Amino acid sequence: MKTKETYAPGLEGIIAAETEISLLDTELEKIIIKGHDLIELSTRKTYADMVYLLLEGALPSSAEKIAVEEKLKSNYEIPQIVTDIIHLLPKQTHPMDGQRTGISVLAGFDESIDDRSVAVNKNRAYELLGQLPAITVNSYRILNNQNPVEPDQDLAYSANFLYMITGKKPSELEAEIFDRSLLLYSEHEMPNSTFTARVIASTQSDMYGALTGAVASLKGSLHGGANEAVMYMLKQAASVHEFEEIMKNKLQNKEKIMGFGHRVYMKKMDPRALIMKESLKQLCDIKGDSLLLDMCEAGEKIMLEEKGLYPNLDYYAAPVYWMLGIPIPLYTPIFFSSRTAGLCAHIMEQHENNRLFRPRVKYIGERDV
Asked: For residues 270 and 316, is the Cβ–Cβ distance under 8 A?
């Protein structure tokens, strides 16, 4: 008997994998990570906790968390040849392409690259996470004719990351908010980049190859580039009224407005966006300037009234990063850096219980021409 063919454009609603990593539970309106509510975790845990949870399967004890931070710190440095190769790239190279190149080069330094065991993959993931701030920041700096910056071994992971970006040691609040953004971006079930990584891993390709493909996926404006687009739009306005006019003109011209809507969150606001909105308010209060928050809230109201759409994480993460002094071209590379924890978990899971992805097509061309 012929099997019934099912066609779902964009694989909408198709279950492609079984996973113990995460779930977007639309019924309970929760993002579940290894059994824990992501939003609840963001109120009391750090990115280092999330890294351990994703790679080890449980929240760390105090001693285990310290060990994670030390393991990440021990990998802050990157091989000089990575920096040398980035220097050779054309100056118009996008920072994400510099990031992608750096990850690809690291593969050549892995003497156990053909080992797909859990233990080796896990150690590989910690090394990559430790190295990513230096690759991410210095690829941007080199491509913008700036000198590479050395990591500060005395700073915790997120504080060091932000220090390398801005060139100044962050305040406790700034480090906390940046860390919270990394945690919120760390894992989100099966978006395009995660699916890409799993498809590549399903061929038994190595972790570097799977992550390189994920960078290429995340670079796309319909996936990771949205936070940059949001900030460029905000920068066009000098007042709430101007921003409202920009939004209304875009709607009138049927232009896509980034930062709104989500393939899964259709009838409510992305819960991660609510956390970043509160973080934006904290930064605005400290700096005594609420303009960005006021503009964002005005835009949120317009989109809900006109299109019935709610903000996603990118909408409020963008102004938060701006208030932290982060250059706009680094927004998406930072997104990828934080998401690498989740990506590595998915790659390891795929390697452990693998089946090669090999979908079919619905042929609509001519026959017997």
From this structure: no
